[in-house]
Amino acid sequence: MVAATFFSSFVTLGIAYSFGAFFTSMAAEFDSTKGATAIIFGLTTFSFFWLSLITGRAADRWGPRPVLLVGAIALCIGLLATSRVQSLGVGYVTYGAGVGLAAASGYIPMVATVGGWFARNRAAAVGLAVAGIGAGTMVVSPLSATLIERYGWRTTYVILALAGTAVLILCALVIQRPPGQVPGQPARFAEAARSPVFRRLHVSALCSGLALFVPFVFVGQYAKDRGVESVAAAILVGALGGASILARIGFGNLVRRFGSLRLYRLCFALLSGSFLLWLVAGSSYAVLLAFVVVLGVGYGGFVALSTIVLAERFGVAGLGSIMGLFYTAQGLGGLIGPPTAGWIIDRTGSYQVMILLCCGLEAAALVLLIGLPTTADGSLAPEPA
What we know:
The chain has helices at 2-16, 19-30, 34-62, 64-82, 88-106, 108-117, 122-151, 153-174, 189-194, 196-212, 214-225, 230-258, 260-281, 285-314, 319-326, 328-348, 352-368. By secondary structure, it is mainly alpha-helical. The protein has a single domain, classed as MFS general substrate transporter like domains (Growth Hormone, Chain: A, Up-down Bundle). The relative contact order is 0.17.
């Protein structure tokens, strides 16, 4: 179950987060601004997280296998259609809907399934499973840049469509509903929405998401603007993914010692501090690399720990619907953040204002976590009966 979730996340999120490698080629072909081109990533992220409301609920009701098969079909159709588009507007639909639905099917329902399979070692299992996102980002972004240089961005999308679909079908054959969970698990949207703690977690995730996805789109473009060649620029996003792998596994294994909520807060402190490195990086590739590594550690910890924090507060029954609702905050952040950042860059001709804004948003996300009910071991206290 962990391996299937690892590879489904590897494919779906690895492809989604590799968009920065395609950014320059697509912007040049369609003669579009940074803000307009970034809308593709924003719509994809929005679709991914908001469609997770449906896919998370569907997995609770019918199991993860049919959901993942739908994701495989969506990935194939979406990428093949994107490889043929003749306008950026059509690409908004084909890529945003296709890759967005694939990611919504291949991540949250699968992670919730892993959470239901484990009791004593849930944190470590989830950490290993979601490490697939970091591995996918680390591999697919530089691989895409290499393929684009050799074959062009359209053929690269065809290659990713065929290879990614094959992997998702294999994962669907493996994944199963957790033992003890019967079909028709109840939706828990209303219960979560009524919880003041959940609402604070949700707003915190929204603040973070507004800033978090900006580097996925723009750090490579920032490096290219300062003379870094395209594959080396794509490696920055790959390094972000690689750092997040270690964080997902490491934070998952540290939960018993330090408590999930303490570590969760630490992740937001790292995210906020990382943008200060970007602010002072200038043309230094080494400092840019340090920025994406620190960002990747904070981001990877957030992904690994958010599932644990929610499971501690609400339990694992119907966890897919709760996670789907929680991640709508990240969807809004992904929809608004990168296009707004592109608009700011286009208007100011500089990255500085955008970077400072991202740093402030991550700091606000951290402040919102202060005062949450905590147990003696540093975990989030369970919801009162």
